[in-house]
Amino acid sequence: MVDLHSQYLTIKSEIDAAIQEVLDSTAFIQGPQVTQFSAALSLYLKSKHVIPCANGTDALQIAMMALNCKPGDEVILPVHTYVATAEVIALLGLLPVFAEVDANTFNIDVNQLEQKITERTVAIVPVHLYGQCADMESILKIAQKHRLYVIEDAAQALGAVYTFSDGRMMKAGTMGTIGCTSFFPSKNLGCFGDGGAIFTQDEALAAKIKMIANHGQKIKYHHAIIGVNSRLDTLQAAILNVKLKYLDGYSQRRNEAALFYDRELASLPFLEIPFRLPYSTHEFHQYTVKTKGIDRNQLKQHLESKGIPSMIYYPVPLHLQEAYRRPAYPAGTFKITEQLSETVLSLPIHTEMKPEQLSYICDVIKAFPIHA
């Protein structure tokens, strides 16, 4: 699905030198590379503040802690997403309120958003799924109207650009109250282990986020608030410093692969290629198709039989996961998401894909026996 080894080999000398510099300094925790990376990512995103942390899940949790979300508060999120988004809400004693997604974009359906808001709602968490931004202009208007926080989960869309109706352009994760991302190795900007970051334009909020991520302290051994221990290792920051320079190039190569797929697969009657939004660029963290009139699992097995990996994101919707089942969300509540869980399939897409690999994948898909 992602060829990290080949990607590493193309920048091996830079990566190795960056790692060696950290090893020579032995500043493994909060070394200068962490500050350097924070500043570089801040400049890239045009976000005033970037606070690195240990992983993307921590980023979401720290964001909600910084906004003083209290047990019993409700947080709205899309039901078609990875569990981490709901997990941190539940861990903090908050109530995850699931919202349906748009059948074309896979992002939260803004037309159904307001009906989910109650007097206990404190925040909306739009997830920019598979690489495209959610409808942030509409979400921000709704949030402003109801005085809600917006916490962007930009883990799959780092680098994506959103264009507002007035022509303003902003990157994923920088439009809401707080933005969060992950640097998991397979992400658009991935390190060689775990890592994450939190973004905000608010100086006071940034100071609080830094304190929470560092045991609730601003001055060592003086703990003003309850915090956590969530740091980005210096080694990972050094690696990310190198890879950040290539992020836009990585995006371009994934988009080239996506266009190849589009050209070859658009005419197939049993597939629906990804929908492209007019107001957001697409990072193609995943190239996710929808199957039509066939058994998705049989297509997956067909690909596997020819040595081609594929993934299903996500086979069990959040509201049907045992940990998140509630009487309010029986099977059939979110028909679009339940249908997506049975029809979506993500094809290999990464920065090192060769035309012959793409051709082979497309030829194998075209050869799928529809009436098998």
List the helices and strands and how they pair.
Elements: H1 4-10, H2 12-25, H3 32-45, E1 49-53, H4 56-66, E2 74-78, H5 83-91, E3 95-99, E4 121-124, H6 136-146, E5 149-153, E6 161-163, E7 169-171, E8 178-182, E9 196-200, H7 203-213, E10 217-219, E11 222-223, H8 234-244, H9 247-265, E12 271-272, E13 287-291, H10 296-305, H11 335-343, E14 344-347, H12 355-366
Parallel strand pairs: 2-3, 2-4, 4-5, 5-8
Antiparallel strand pairs: 1-9, 6-7, 8-9, 10-11, 12-13, 13-14
Key terms for this structure?
372 residues; alpha/beta; Aspartate Aminotransferase, domain 2; Aspartate Aminotransferase, domain 1; 2 domains; seven-stranded mixed beta sheet; three-stranded antiparallel beta sheet; 12 helices; 14 strands
Helix content: 25-40%
- CATH topology title of the largest domain: Aspartate Aminotransferase, domain 2
Q: Give the helices and strands as they follow along the chain.
A: HHHEHEHEEHEEEEEHEEHHEEHHEH
Q: Give the full name of the CATH homologous superfamily of the largest domain.
A: Type I PLP-dependent aspartate aminotransferase-like (Major domain)
Give the integer mean of the pLDDT values. Answer: 97
- Through-space gap between termini: 25 Å
State the name of the first-level CATH class of the largest domain: Alpha Beta
**Whole-angstrom Rg:** 21 Å
Q: Report strand order across the widest sheet.
A: 1-9-8-5-4-2-3
Low-pLDDT residue intervals, each spanning 5 or more residues: none
Q: What's the number of extended β-strand segments? A: 14
| Beta-strand residue percentage | 15-25%
Number of helices: 12
Any idea what the CATH architecture of the largest domain is? Answer: 3-Layer(aba) Sandwich
Secondary-structure-derived class: alpha/beta
User: Biggest sheet, open or closed, and with what strands and sense?
Assistant: 7 strands, mixed
Q: What is the domain total for the residues?
A: 2
How would you describe the shape?
A: globular
